[in-house]
Amino acid sequence: MIKNLTNVRGITCWGAHTGVKSMRRDLALIYSEVPASAAATFTKNQVVAEPIKLSRKNIANGKAQAIVINAGNANACTGEQGRQGAEAMVKTTAEELGIDEGLVLVASTGLIGEPFPTDDVVDGIKENIGKLSNKSNAGSFAANAILTTDTFAKEGFLEFDVDGIEVNMAGIAKGSGMIHPNMGTMLAFIVCDVAISPKLLDKTVKAAVDKSFNMITVDGDTSTNDMVAVLCNGMAKNPELTSTKDPGYNTFKAKLEEIMIHLAQTIVSDGEGCSKFVRYEVVNAPDEVMGRKLIREISSSTLVKTAMFGRDPNWGRIMCAAGNAGVPFDFEKTDLYLGSDKELVKMLEKGKPQDFDRNNMKRILRQSQLHIKMDLNSGKHRAEGWGSDLTTDYVMFNSVYTT
Fold first, then answer.
1. Is 131 annotated as a binding-site member?
2. For FRET with 105, which of 21, 90, 380, 391 sits at 20 to 30 Å CA-CA?
3. CA gap 255, 334 in Å, rounded
4. 346 assigned binding-site residue
5. Is 266 a catalytic residue?
6. Would you give the distance in Å from CA 243 to the centre of its chain?
7. What GO cellular component term, any one, is given (predicted)?
């Protein structure tokens, strides 16, 4: 049996169908037996969904014990009615579990601007709280209940040692459209049984999000509902991590980055209508932040995306996008490679175009996994990101999204 959320000590969950979505689970519940250290990042969009406003408030004290998520309605641009709906989700969950409302995080995903179906969601919470379980199928139900246009559930699990103590970490995510690096532009929930202080967890989560969810893009649109939340309930009973110098902290940090990168990559691989997964790499940069900025600009370029879809080795589009990133780099020192992980072809050397076999390159670009690599030859730092192509299927799908 594949391990998931329910294999983390003290975590129970459930996923159910409440009627908000037709024929699919649309309500997920995640619960920790004890209050957990909690940290989260949220959308940078100025139009913010009601659940995001509430979760920002509730997580301010660095503690949480439950997460409730509905799919099928984003509860964004819904005004007072939507605010009351988000508050009802929190209130009902807290009452049914017998915990403080401030320990409940809430998230929503689905159509923007539709009246929020408060009664259906609240009734669903009441009917399903009693079904919370630590059985494996409960974890799978929760992973499936947060999906919208996704074609598969996105899950991850890691087992590792922190200061000699076995620790479990698991996560679920959703996202396939309205994905653009500026927090992560999707939903992701990670639970772990490590003991760590809220302050240190917050610092670690933000750094890990920058290397993972903030380095993906599908269509360049930052959602109104983006949220990454991490709960660590301490039930592994390791000596609490309070400092970056504590034994085992570096292992925890690396594993958190690993599971976030895994979940981020699954989102890109499920991009709406996409036919290609593109790995972007910048090496030998003066600093990592510069490399990330270059990747974000290149990976979000419509012209680069369409070239990858059309199997067009138009490297000029890549360099043009890089030049628009707002960071100084020396084009005449730059090498550029295009292809796949197994067949990278040098297109530029120190800024000079290189001869290449166009027919062979078109053959390489037919592959579903592509690789674009820039070598700045100006430092020792590296950055990586992930994106998709832009297809006619994406345009057709999103042109009739609500109709």
1. no
2. 21
3. 33
4. no
5. no
6. 26
7. cytoplasm
